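Tutorial sheet, problem 5. The four components below are modelled jointly, 488 residues in total.
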Amino acid sequence: MEFINNDSRPLYLRIKEYLEGLIENQTYKPGDRLPSENSLANELGVSRATLREALRVLEEEGKIVKHQGIGTFISEQKPTFLRGIEELVSVTETIENAGYKPGTTGLKMKLVKPSESLQAKVKLSEGEEILQLERIRTANGLPVVYCLDHLNNSYLYKEFSQEDFSGSLFNVLQNKFNISIKYALAQIIPVNADRALSKHLDISENFPLLLLEQYHYDRKDRMILFSQNYFRSDQFQFKVLRQR
Amino acid sequence: MEFINNDSRPLYLRIKEYLEGLIENQTYKPGDRLPSENSLANELGVSRATLREALRVLEEEGKIVKHQGIGTFISEQKPTFLRGIEELVSVTETIENAGYKPGTTGLKMKLVKPSESLQAKVKLSEGEEILQLERIRTANGLPVVYCLDHLNNSYLYKEFSQEDFSGSLFNVLQNKFNISIKYALAQIIPVNADRALSKHLDISENFPLLLLEQYHYDRKDRMILFSQNYFRSDQFQFKVLRQR
DNA sequence: CAGTGGTCTAGACCACTCG
DNA sequence: GAGTGGTCTAGACCACTGG
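Model answer (structure tokens):
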């Protein structure tokens, strides 16, 4: 067995992808039992530990299920729980995933002293100013999300130019400043559109919106960005896989 | 090193808990580097593979972070992202986690033919009836969640007695029928209270609510329960860790 | 009972980071 | 170069499941 090229990636990953291929091309179908770990390892010419590492990844991805004493099985098709809210994507991507063409209008950018409520949310040194971005995001030209972004690195201000913000702020941070957002702690809040929001999003007052308040962190757990995104509830579905 | 009792649980789990204890009692503090895997394995008198299995669990739980070529570090305190919405808990537990004493009022139970919209959500054989449970859940006596549960195993009807439903439906299913719910696919929907909901939850009309529509599955991916839970937005915080 | 996945060992080499 | 975590091997025994 060649896996597949003799190229550099770890063996267990190549094994994993090989098995993944067998699942995708229906050599193994949902519900089928895989050969035992011993025999599979032998067939593939790798140690059992290496095979198990590959299987572990497949199990994490939900593609196989193990049952001690019985065997390892190809998972049944489950209801799509990809693209759940637990996967961090930009608003731009969220709009794209919903099948629309993303756009931006009504950009405002300013340095502000944070209000008290904001001060509490974004821990800053006293008196510090904050870079605030206000945008209305559109899907196929229709306003669907109202976005407020707060960056404490206010020195970035002079580096920014308006044209940067037609798309994903994540991309701007990544490409221009090499800041990579790794995860966000999000709070999910149902709200009603007030007068301002109803104008921004072209909806009636009291229209139900989903507010996503998100603290974005980089790989070293530094808080980079605090954002408040108001989504029109009729345009987006927010799903999540909840596990025990 | 004894871990700790010579009792039956796997060695790597005992190692994991031992290390967990060292973290909790501040022997290792956030940011500290652990000894290298080789030296730690030697100190503990286990193989490196076993130690790595313990570390792997700790890493999954976010308690340590590894950096190749550098070392393994105790995680910084992150904003609590335990108890996020990605962890499936019953409404009862949700109320308890929010610091309240859970209760139940206004229980109704009936067999119904599903409406068309419900029919679409719960795939059933034609003409089949569904067991519907309606409950208002209270926190410290105040109504906070309106719950509709739909069970397609309508034969369970005669088995149920009213007293079962003061608490978690999960527990009833587990204890009485040995049905174990493993995961749920949830949709998060912001809604406004209509007249009926405003009465049930003792709030004004148009009060913002979070509707959680959940399809519950057992370990074998069989859909057991479809539930609709309307949460008062002022009583609960829904958080989620979003990762790239 | 035989066969499965789960745990564990001892040892080896590789890939990455730092000084 | 020295030290770290990442990968890999060969072999062993245990715990659980089914017939």
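Marking note: The first strand of chain A starts at residue 64 and ends at 67. Full credit if you identified this.
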